[in-house]
Design goal:
The structure holds three protein chains of three kinds. Chain B is mainly alpha-helical. Chain B is built from twelve helices and no strands. Chain B has two domains: about 45 residues, no CATH class; about 210 residues, MetI-like fold (Orthogonal Bundle). Chain B starts with 5 loop residues before the first helix and ends with a helix. By secondary structure, chain C is α/β, with parallel strands linked by helices. Chain C is globular, with a radius of gyration of 18 Å. Classes of the chains: A mainly alpha, B mainly alpha, C alpha/beta.
């Protein structure tokens, strides 16, 4: 760096360039080797040693096992409507509850409006991380243990799981606002409440609504599987079909899940287009 | 309170009526509030959520946490077997993310509207593929692969592969769609074919972003990997399943704690790695 | 009596940072259009923001309307700010709200929390806002969103918002720097007319010396936080100007 700015000695700077280039190449070679070694080791442990190759048998057997899933169980259709609606509504209610929990989380977690930085800011960050780091299945297990089977633990699992992402994005949006309107509202004599509702919220609301709709879409996907651990919706039907070895039924449930996800995507697309 | 300035009052005509909501606009505004409210009330009704019990629930929740989950069984997660399963989980996530990313590169190319070989056939196909990978939850992939291939980490790796592909393909494609088309045009002008254009015109522009997304994918895949074992695909999730079934709540608490700590660490590592990559740019 | 008396004002941004203002004193009388000129970084913006306490000065006195501004805080400060209108360089409008809502936001100091939440302003305020919008020439744009307007139109909304407060003093922070010369002159003209009509003194922080000479009756020249010139516009001459802007040449 220092040598290359020295115009008096071209030879030296060329040398430095070559050295840095060689060093860069060396670093990338080492990184690649380590990554490749990790691949080999991982494949050896997870795939080669851990797999029961005899159970899998030949390629033909695998194809046969896959083939069982091809087909649709038409008889299942009428029984799917209820759970499908349930799945969709768990996602809606879970997102709604998540947004409510997000309000304090985003408020505390935005550096520029957090009420008491040394305590509230880390608290909010902890809430966000906790929510994001635990998988929805684990949350659902926990809430099922506390509340019993049914849709309610599903709603809570979805809500708690959504907090992290929505609150993080909202807090970031709040941190990125243009400070001008805040100044303007303070200059007309507005208090903190007026500043929030007139200067902060209008700036971040479209972004937050976008994030919430995005999260709702993901939540449909999540609520479709929470039934696997006893939290209602299509997951429960899926679990039953799997346990009774009704493979065509399994495919049917997956198709139903795909359909409601497509529906959700279409709705969110429509809302987002309107918003702009 | 009243306007002090009579000059303005006299200068202007009598003020027109002004109302915040006028007919068509107000209908949309009130209507959407009404719809949102109805959906929520109907959901509570349909799902039979006992609102009166919800508040009491929190006391019970605290009680259960304190009584059953509290003395976290740290010894259990310090066990060699368990730590072995943690390593396996990391390996599954690593392989899943890696294979997923390998699939993603062509998939994202085909699913990027500006660079796809054929907008009529390949583009919708690739879009559909990446969407289905994303739409089907990783646990469902796991269950399907376990049912086809039997218990073990292979189905886990495959499920995570599809999960990672679905996750990264969308981001990759968006990245390709956002490139500067100048260099691409320059490449076309030299008479290069599509593959050459990709390698010389597109790839250099998205390389750094791809690396960042790739690291992020690993992070996300690791989170998913912690539970695929729950459905028979090895790793930590399997321990979780066993202890949930045996109602060993203190061990479950320990496992959940270990998951949180590991995810935090992986998040820190991925944030650091992305930072390094961004700087190399 | 002077509406605003500033004496020996010092200000800095951080406890250990350098002083931005180093002992500024001046008085604004009832019918003044007071200009603050000086190169960028001279402390013009800080000075203006000290008056309504968007920036807290380290020492010195600011007496506005018989109150010591530096001693106020919380509710009393907000009450005092209601009487000071402010117009900003970047307009500082709430972009996603309508022109009407932006003008009405000038009354937020008088509006309770519940009314703020539902944006339910009293009838009087709405009538007043409509008259002001007529007056600044925006009666056709009442329901447009603020970000659909051109720069000059936005600054007119800013003027209407400030006048909505029925201010006893107007602060203008570089009201024309974001506008082109022709619009700048129009905006300054509008502010001046309105100020004279409503009998509001103005304190205007301005980069463009020509505009300052044309519209203002008193000028204070700052350089690096120090007063280089203070007096009626007629006393201003080339030599003084050169001195004030000497730093900028370097």
């Amino acid at each position: 760096m220092t040598a290359s700015s020295d115009t008096a000695s071209f030879g030296l700077s060329t040398e430095t360039v070559l050295v840095t280039r060689r060093r860069k190449r060396l670093v990338s070679a080492i990184v690649t080797t380590v990554l490749l070694a990790l691949v080999v080791w991982s494949v050896d442990v997870t795939v080669v040693k851990d797999t029961d190759w005899e159970r899998i048998g030949s390629v033909g057997n695998v194809l046969e096992a896959t083939n069982r899933f091809i087909g649709i169980d038409v008889d299942l259709f009428p029984t799917l409507l209820g759970p499908a609606i349930e799945t969709l509504l768990i996602a809606c209610l879970g997102t709604f509850l998540g947004v409510i929990i997000c309000i304090p989380a985003a408020w505390f977690g935005a550096m520029n409006i957090t009420p008491f930085k040394p305590i509230t800011y880390p608290l909010a960050r902890l809430m966000m991380t906790l929510s994001r780091s635990v998988h929805e299945i684990v949350w659902a297990l926990f809430f099922v243990a506390v509340m019993g089977l049914g849709a309610m633990p599903g709603v809570f699992a979805i809500a708690v799981r959504s907090v992290g992402f929505i609150a993080k994005m909202s807090a970031e949006a709040i941190e990125d606002i243009d400070h001008g309107p805040v100044e303007a509202i303070r200059a007309v004599g507005g208090g903190p409440f007026q500043v929030f509702f007139y200067a902060v919220l209008p700036q971040v609301l479209p972004q937050i609504i976008g994030v919430v709709i995005f999260e709702w879409e993901i939540n449909i996907r999540r609520s479709a599987i929470l039934g696997l651990v006893g939290a209602g919706g299509l997951g429960l039907v899926f679990f039953r079909q799997m346990n009774t070895f009704n493979y065509h039924g399994v495919t049917t449930v997956i198709l139903a899940i795909l359909i409601i996800i497509l529906l959700g995507e279409a709705i969110s697309h429509a809302i987002r287009r309107r918003m702009i | 309170m009243t306007p002090r300035d009579m000059s303005i009052a006299t200068a202007a005509e009598a003020p027109r009526e002004w109302r915040r909501f006028r007919y068509p606009h107000s209908l949309v505004s009130y209507g959407s509030w009404l719809i949102a409210f109805t959906v929520i009330v109907y959901s509570i009704e349909y799902l039979e959520i006992p609102l009166d019990r919800v508040l009491g629930m929190f006391g019970r929740m605290g009680e259960i946490l304190a009584n059953r989950y509290y003395p976290v069984d740290i010894d259990y997660i310090m066990d060699v077997d368990y730590i072995g399963s943690v390593v396996e989980t990391i390996q599954m996530a690593y392989l899943g993310a890696l294979f997923g990313l390998l699939i993603t590169v062509p998939l994202a190319w085909f699913a990027a509207y500006n660079m796809t070989p054929s907008r009529l056939f390949v583009y919708p196909g690739a879009r559909f593929l990446s969407m289905s990978c994303r739409a089907v939850h990783e646990t469902i992939w796991t269950i399907l692969f376990v049912s086809i291939l039997g218990f073990g980490m292979l189905p886990g790796v495959l499920a995570l592969t599809l999960f990672s592909a679905g996750f990264a393909a969308k981001l990759f494609a968006e990245e390709i769609e956002a490139i500067d088309m100048g260099p691409v045009e320059a490449m076309w002008a030299t008479g290069a074919n599509l593959f050459q254009v990709m390698v010389f015109g597109v790839f250099p522009q998205v390389r750094v972003a791809f690396t960042g997304i790739g690291i992020y994918t690993w992070d996300v895949a690791f989170r998913a990997a912690t539970v695929v074992g729950f459905f028979g695909a090895g790793g930590m999730g399997w321990y979780l399943k066993r202890n949930v079934m045996q109602i060993e709540t203190e061990r479950v608490a320990a496992i959940i704690l270990s998951i949180i700590v590991l995810v935090l660490i992986s998040e820190l590592i991925s944030a650091w790695a992305r930072n390094v990559v961004m700087k190399m740019k | 009596m002077a509406v605003l008396q500033v004496s020996d004002l010092y200000a800095r941004y951080s406890a250990k940072g350098p002083d931005i203002l180093k002992g500024i004193s001046f008085d604004v009388e009832g019918d003044d259009f007071f200009a603050i000129i000086g190169p960028s970084g001279a402390g013009k913006s800080t000075l203006i923001r000290c008056i309504n306490r968007l920036v807290t000065p380290t020492s010195g006195r600011i007496v506005f309307d018989g109150q010591e501004m530096t001693a106020l805080s919380g509710k009393d400060l907000r009450r005092a700010r209601r009487d000071i209108g402010m117009i900003f360089q970047e307009f500082n409008l709430i972009n996603r709200m309508s022109v009407m809502d932006n003008v009405l936001s000038g009354r937020l100091g008088y509006t309770g929390n519940l009314r703020t939440l539902f944006r339910a302003f009293p009838r009087d305020d709405i009538d007043h806002a409509l008259r002001l919008l007529d007056r600044v020439g925006l009666s056709d744009h009442v329901d447009k969103r603020a970000d659909e307007l051109s720069g000059g139109q936005r600054q007119r909304v800013g003027i209407a918002r400030a006048l909505m407060q029925n201010p006893k003093l107007m602060l203008l922070d570089e009201p024309t720097s974001a506008l082109d010369p022709k619009i700048s002159r129009e905006i300054m003209g509008l502010v001046k007319t309105m100020a004279q009509e409503l009998n509001v003194p103005c304190l205007c922080n301005i980069h463009d010396v020509k505009l300052a000479m044309e519209f203002c009756n008193k000028i204070i020249g700052l350089q690096d936080g120090v007063t280089m010139f203070s007096g009626p516009t007629e006393q201003m001459n080339e030599a003084t100007l050169d001195e004030i802007y000497a730093m900028e040449v370097l």
